[in-house]
Amino acid sequence: MCVCVCVVCVMLCPASCLPLLRELGQWRCLLGFPRHHGVAAASTAGLTANSGQQQGSEVRGGRPIGRSKPLTGRQFSSAGCLLSLHHSEKPEHEEVCEFRPYTCPCPGATCKWHGALEAVMPHLMHAHKSITTLQGEDIVFLATDINLPGAVDWVMMQSCFSHHFMLVLEKQEKYEGHQQFFAVVLLIGTRKQAENFAYRLELNGNRRRLTWEATPRSIHDGVSAAIMNSDCLVFDTSIAHLFADNGNLGINVTISMC
Q1: Which residue spans within the chain are E strands per DSSP?
Q2: CA pair distance 32, 35, nearest whole angstrom
Q3: Please, are residues 161 and 197 in contact by the beta-carbon 8 Å criterion?
């Protein structure tokens, strides 16, 4: 009886074998066979637990073994991302996804705000009212008291070409006694929008001039990425003092369209 049922089950689908396997289990009990090592016991348990599985899975040793399938969930699909990726590719894509929520662009701040791109400026105007906004494509970014100890950030907004740009001067102490300044311009916009602009930073002093020209970074990248990649104007304390006036440093900022 046992041999016949097992042969038939091999030819049938797992679900249709279920009644036969149960009957086999009853016969084994009547004949005194132990169940804990029996094929029928293991297979019956496996099929009972997995009888509702999708076609394309197979049962080995009473456990379901599913064929691998790509996971196509999209964390930012509700924001407009249409890509379907394997789960192993998702973390890398989410880091650069244009539909990822924007975080507060203020450097060094403990602000945990995040939201849509169109909500960034209202957030800055409401939560960071101390930031000054100047109009025009050519302005002077004045950083006061550059001799303040420790890490310090100076931030200003520039509005032109129907866009807003964040101007950042950051001072860091690389090692004891050696400080560096990093100046960069960020667009309150996407990376693609940032490619349409260029900016120039210029320090002017007594018969001296220091100039940096580049494409602005999107606030999606942030100040840290610009500094890490040296994609900004970098100078040390001695250079800053050459252009400073009574501890204040004026940086001419010019925005242009490409």
Answers
A1: 57-60, 63-66, 102-103, 114-115, 132-135, 138-143, 152-160, 163-175, 178-187, 197-205, 208-214, 217-218, 233-236, 249-257
A2: 9
A3: yes
Count of positions (residues) in the chain? 258
Q: What distance in Å separates the CA atoms of residue 105 and residue 253, rounded to the nearest whole number?
A: 19
What's the mean pLDDT in 23-31? Answer: 49
Residue 245: CB atoms within 10 A of its CB come to 9
pLDDT tens per residue, range 191-211:
999 999 999 999 999 899 999
Provide the 3-class DSSP secondary structure of residue 114.
strand
Q: How far apart are CA 70 and CA 58, in angstroms?
A: 18
* d(C-alpha 137, C-alpha 53), whole Å: 63
Contact 40, 24 (CB under 8 A): yes
Distances (CA, A) of 90 to 69, 70, 71, 106, 116: 14, 11, 9, 27, 20
Question: What pLDDT, in 10s, does the model give residues 33-59?
Answer: 444 444 444 444 443 444 444 444 334
